[in-house]
Amino acid sequence: MLMRRDWSMVNRCNICKENEESANHILIHCGASLVFNLTHGLAKLTGGIKRKVEHKSPLERLLAATPLAPFCLSGVGTMNEEQRSLLLKTSSRFPPPQGVKLSYGTAGFRADASILESTVYRVGILAALRSLKTKSVIGLMITASHNKVSDNGVKIADPSGGMLTQNWEPFADALANASDPEDLVRLIIEFVKKENIHFEGACPAEVLLGRDTRPSGGSLLEAAKQGISSIVGAIALDMGVLTTPQLHWMVRARNKGMKASEVDYFEQLSSSFRCLMDLIPEGSKINEMGDKLIVDGANGVGGEKLAGLKNMLNSPVIDVRNSGKEGGVLNEGVGADYVQKEKVVPVGFGPSDVGLRCASLDGDADRLVYFLVLPKDNKIDLVDGDKILSLFALFVKEQLAILNTNGNEKINNYYHACLGVVQTAYANGASTDYLKKQGLEVLFTPTGVKYLHEKAAEFDIGIYFEANGHGTILFSEEFLCWLEARDNELSSMSKGSEQQKAASRLLAVSKLINQAVGDALSGLLLVEAILQHMGWSIHIWNALYQDLPSRQLKVKVVDRTAIVTANAETVVVKPPGLQEAINAEIAKYPQGRSFVRPSGTEDIIRVYAEATTQDAADSLGNSVARLVDKFLGFGSSS
Ligand SMILES: CC(=O)N[C@H]1[C@@H](OP(=O)(O)O)O[C@H](CO)[C@@H](O)[C@@H]1O
Ligand SMILES: [Mg+2]
């Protein structure tokens, strides 16, 4: 049980003896004479007891820091009878689907919405446990992104706003597949013990919930709430219909003690965008005609949110189509995934849009691609995630170079920021060549932003994108700290200088671009600002390099887990013989490249092929797809 405390602010920091009016000091007078100081990361009782605490924290951290907390715990890594019976009771209302094995996959659990209630309920429990473990706010998002409208899914946002730590994925799988309430409770007890979770600790679990526009979202949200409230004292906060990146942003903001509402999100995006626009070099604005942007909202949540955001901006002129309000179906013939994979115009676009700058969001607005409508056959010129990555990388590199221009200043004012870019095997080979030619360090990870994000976070500035348009730019805390100080210094010494503007631009980028996860809305605003900055039309941007023709195919197989890959998914290690057969096909095509991997979001094997002509890419893709079918398809012996 939590003891009631009488909090009141006091005026002096007992640790550093400074006046605590500054933002860095939070002094809390609690019960006896506990004084807590965030700057020093210490809690101190006048009796002399000191306890080390984590530095990140809002109120929960303060609670955890109190020397009284141990008396509030009924046990670490244990579960009392009340908790056990609550879990048994609620879980009996959510029987798992029979004969289905669920896996956390590339981006959480996804399946036909009709079988997901039990999974979402269990992920609610998982989210609450994660919150207890990390003593932080956790996010739970109900979405199946680009999948068809009858599907749904659920995933967790960790305290940083990123994806659930991969260490917990096996537990997520075990929970989702537990056969009955007893099995479920046994797994939870074991896990709580292993992870040393303060089961009824002083900090209550807190989970922010979001969902996309799918009709099944409402009932699944209720299941998530039931799961969360199956952990005694846990709090579920319904943030409403959101884009996936908005929820991730909110979780991150909450855990950093910042304002975290949707209004705050829009405010941050629009003000940093305006800042970038104010810093556009004289004379580089593109003409009125080029100012118009047409956006396909995939009939999902992104279109609706973009419509709200654009009201806070003076430019560009944004025409949102497929906002979901005109009766179209989510992701049906629309959206970034459709446009990128099929390379045709989405519904609602046609000959009258030829030559205009168009963009497409996916169903939960964490992906963004641009495109140009071609005059014939509903075909498009795709400007994909690789080109967005290239545009961002060029801009960041240019601003860093300006910032580090050596004037007459001392060398210790410079910070040689390490800039890196991260791609997956789906990146077009031409993009990788281009990036390397720009002198950039290019790294590869398996598919899924959880991998790319982790790698990008190793740099001072890490830019990652999947070809499908999911990506962002990460700035390290250390670099941002230096940049802010440098910006202040330059502003006082030489406001309006090129160096000062470069520092301000980079700071604005770090605020505009979502630091938690790839975000189509913030990505779109950054693309728009950079195009204006460069004075580039979409045609000039698209001409940075010429994509190698490629083809993506899906193959239905008996068991997709039968394919095991290595080397960032470029080599099949199981079943034996398949890679050799693929190699033999590739060898027939100049500059041919092809790989296969099981999808983590759909029950299929994905085939990718690239070659010097579209016919060659199609033919290579088809041959490899036939091989997959031969080895693993319904007619195969395996
Ligand atoms: C080829 C492709 O586009 N794969 C997508 C897709 O994953 P699969 O595991 O390939 O189904 O969905 C993921 C989540 O949105 C995304 O991260 C990934 O890039
Ligand atoms: Mg998505």
Automatic annotation (TrEMBL):
Q: Which residues form the Alpha-D-phosphohexomutase C-terminal domain?
A: 555-625
Outline the extent of the Alpha-D-phosphohexomutase alpha/beta/alpha domain. 134-167
Q: InterPro entries of this UniProt entry?
A: A-D-PHexomutase_a/b/a-I, A-D-PHexomutase_a/b/a-I/II/III, A-D-PHexomutase_C, A-D-PHexomutase_C_sf, AMG1_II, AMG1_III, PAGM
Q: What class of enzyme is it?
A: isomerase
Enzyme Commission number(s): 5.4.2.3
Kindly tell me the pathway this chain contributes to. Nucleotide-sugar biosynthesis; UDP-N-acetyl-alpha-D-glucosamine biosynthesis; N-acetyl-alpha-D-glucosamine 1-phosphate from alpha-D-glucosamine 6-phosphate (route I): step 2/2
- Which reaction is recorded as catalysed by this protein? N-acetyl-alpha-D-glucosamine 1-phosphate = N-acetyl-D-glucosamine 6-phosphate
Domain of life, per lineage: Eukaryota
State how the cofactor is bound: Binds 1 Mg(2+) ion per subunit.
Which Pfam families does the entry link to?
AMG1_II, AMG1_III, PGM_PMM_I, PGM_PMM_IV
The prosthetic group or cofactor this protein requires is: Mg(2+)
Which SUPFAM superfamilies has this protein been placed in? Phosphoglucomutase, C-terminal domain, Phosphoglucomutase, first 3 domains
Q: Which UniProt keywords apply?
A: Isomerase, Magnesium, Metal-binding, Phosphoprotein
Using the record's annotation, list all stretches that form the Phosphoacetylglucosamine mutase AMG1 domain.
260-369, 384-536
Q: In which family does this protein belong, per the annotation?
A: Belongs to the phosphohexose mutase family.
Question: Any idea what job this protein has?
Answer: Interconverts GlcNAc-6-P and GlcNAc-1-P.
Name-wise, this protein is: Phosphoacetylglucosamine mutase
**Species for this entry:** Vitis vinifera (Grape)
